[in-house]
Amino acid sequence: MSNSYMDIALVVGPDSNLEAQAIRSSLEAFNVRVLTYWIGRPNDFIKILSDEDADCIILSFHGVESELVMPKLGEMVYEENEPRKNFGAKEILEYGKLNNQLVIGNGCTLGSSELANAFLNIGCKTYIGPSDYIDGNATLYFIIRFFYEILSNKRTEKEAYELAKSTDKETSLYEWYSVDT
């Protein structure tokens, strides 16, 4: 794809494939280059957390209690020293190293201040995510509206966030965290 406005890494956790396909199709319609990563094991996620250089990382994951839900593997399938649990702030701090990217944790409870601060501490410039359990349709809508405002209406990330968040009770769950604020 030529002349893309930005590069986005779409990182897809277990049971999030329909949302991810809708996000990818929508963003590509906006002329965005989308690199999709299907997380089959925790070490796949660790590699992305320490090696991705896209402008934005969208984490299309289910979230539970401020943790990204990781794939569950058979004990014999895990690699040596591979984490066997969900990823919260502790794991992000342990394994992550980002390079001034925007990160959107697009799943339930992934907008907690503890998780957001962990991402900011590993080099994320801005982190956005819902602070509570959110309707799945709202997560898809938020992403589409957010990027529509940036790409089609030339809004800043903060302006686009405010517009996408203002839609209804569900989208109002999204929180903004930034190294600048």
In percent, how much strand structure appears in the residues? 15-25%
Number of domains: 1
Q: Can you write the helix and strand succession as a string?
A: EHEHEEEHEHEHHE
CATH class: Alpha Beta
Strands ordered across the widest β-sheet = 2-1-3-6-7-8
CATH architecture call: 3-Layer(aba) Sandwich
Mass-distribution shape:
globular
**Class based on secondary structure composition and strand pairing:** alpha/beta
Distance between the termini: 34 Å
Q: What Rg is obtained from the alpha carbons, in whole angstroms?
A: 15 Å
Number of helices: 6
The total strand number stands at 8
Which sheet architecture does the biggest sheet show? 6 strands, mixed
Average pLDDT number? 95
Contiguous uncertain segments of 5+ residues: none
Range of helix content: 25-40%
User: What is the CATH topology classification name?
Assistant: Rossmann fold
